[in-house]
Amino acid sequence: MGLADRIGATTDRAVGAAKDRLGAATGNAELQAQGLAQNAVGRAGGHGQDVEGAAQDISGDQP
């Protein structure tokens, strides 16, 4: 995995965690789910796994 991939995965984890916390604090379940999904994409990105479809299922987003 290259540097750009690692930076992207780290960014997804950080932004996802922030969305999760903000959604939880404000009672916004949709934002919280998006955060959890984005965090999962970032974590899996570090392992070369394709989980974007699963993350979209979790957050309810459609492609």
From TrEMBL:
SUPFAM superfamilies: Hypothetical protein YjbJ (SSF69047). InterPro entries: YjbJ_sf (IPR036629). Residues 40-63 are annotated as: Disordered. It comes from the Bacteria. This is CsbD family protein. It comes from Kocuria oceani.
